[in-house]
Amino acid sequence: MTIWLLALLLMASTAALGYRQGAIRVAVSFIGILAGTLLALPLAKLVKILLGSFGVVNPVVLWILGPVIAFVIISAIFKACALPLHQKIDVHYKYHAGDLRLALWERLNSRLGACLGLLNGAAYTILICFGIYILSYWTFQVGSDDQDPRGMRVLNRLGEDLQKTGFNKVARSLDSLPDAYYRVADFIGLVYFNPLLEARLSRYPAFLTLAERNDFATVGRDKEFTQMRMRKEPIMGLLKYQSVDPMIQNPETVKLVWDTIHENLADLPGYLDTGKSAKYDSQKILGRWRFDVSAAAAAARRARPNMPSSEMLKLRRWMQLAFAETTVVAMTDSRIILKNLPSVRQPTAIPTQPGTPVTTVASETLQGKWKDLDDKYQINFEGKDDVFAKIEGSRLMMSFEGTPLAFVPEGY
User: Fold this and answer.
1) Same domain for 61 and 7?
2) What's the average pLDDT block by block, 10 residues per block, for the chain (412 residues)?
3) String of b and e for 143-178 (b: at least 16 CB within 10 Å)?
4) pTM for the complete prediction?
5) In 3-state terms, what secondary structure has residue 266?
6) Are 287 and 205 in contact (CB under 8 A)?
7) Is 143 part of a structural domain of the chain?
8) Is 279 part of any domain?
C-alpha cells in the first residue's frame, strides 16, 4: 500500500509542478533524468573521491551517496539549462507573437507540461523503487523486527510492499548489479541468523588469511561480542560494536572481505552444508591444525623402536606440556604459520606425575611459505632449514630439528 501511495504522491506532485513550470522545462528535466540515470554510475567514482577529500570514508556510505549525488548534479544541470530556454521562448510569445498566440501557447505549455510531469513522476517512481529494492534486499536479510532502527524498519516495510505490489519486477528490470551482489546478501543473512555456522566458517581455507589479521583475531577473542552474536543482537548494534566499527570504516578491510566472499560464492554454500570444500579440499595442507600428542609419540617410537618405556613416558609427558598450544595454519596464499612452538629439544628431567610443577617452556611463532611437491610439502620457515611435511591419513606429519611433530585438523 505504501508503494502505491508513494507513486500517487509523486505523480500528482510532478503533474502539478509540470503544469506550473511548462512543457519546455519539464521536457528538459526528463532528459536530465535519463542522462542522470545513465551517467550516475560512471561519475560516482569522481564523487567518491570528492567525498573522501571531505573526510567521508565509510565505504557503504560512499557506495550509496556516490551515484545519488552524481544523479542530482546532472539533473540540476539540465534543470538550470532549461530555465533560460523557457524564458527565451516565453519572451518571444509575450512580445512578438500577439495576444491570441500567447494565450494558445500558455494553454498548450501548461497542459503539455502536466502530461510530461506525469512522465517525470513515473521515472522518479521507478528510480525510487529501484533504490528501495537494492537496499531492502540487504536490510531484509538481517532484519530483527522491532529491535532495528526506525529507518531500517521503514525500508524493510517498503521492500515488502514492493514485492506484494509487483513493483519489484519494474525495479529489477533496471538492475545492472551483478548477481553476486544478491548472493552475498543471502550468504550474510544465512550466517547472521545461524551464528553457530561461524565456527565452521572460520576454518574455511579462504578465510584463514582474514582470521590471522589482528583486527579479526581481536573480534574473535571478544567474549562479549560472541555473546551478542549468540543472542542474535540487531545487526546495527553489532556493526557499531567497539572492535567492529573501525573495520567497517576501513575501505581496504571491507573490500578485502567482499572480494574474499565474492571469489568463493560458488563453493561456500556447499561447504557450510557439508563441511567439505570442492575448491580447496584437493590441497590437503590447507587449514588450521592442532598438535596431536599420540601421533607425535607414535612417530618418535617408530624412529626409535628400542626406546625404553620410561623414556617414552617422559617424552609423551613433555609433549603434552610443551606443545599444548602449538598449532599450524596453512593458508591459500602459500603462507604458513607455526604458532607457539617450544624448544624441540627434550629436557633431561621431566615429571611423569600429573600435577607436578613444570618450568614454563618458552615458545616462538614461525612464519614461512609452503610448496606442493606432489607427495609431500616443502616448508621454508624464515631463518630455519627447509622442513618437509606429509599428509598421512588425516594427520599432518613433519620433523622439526630432529623431533617428529604431528597435527590433526582443528575440530577433528
Assistant:
1) yes
2) 88 93 93 93 89 81 90 94 90 85 90 94 93 92 83 90 88 84 90 88 91 89 90 89 89 89 91 90 92 92 86 88 91 93 65 49 84 91 89 90 89 68
3) bbeeebeeebbebbbbbbbbeebebbebbeeeeeee
4) 0.79
5) coil
6) yes
7) yes
8) no
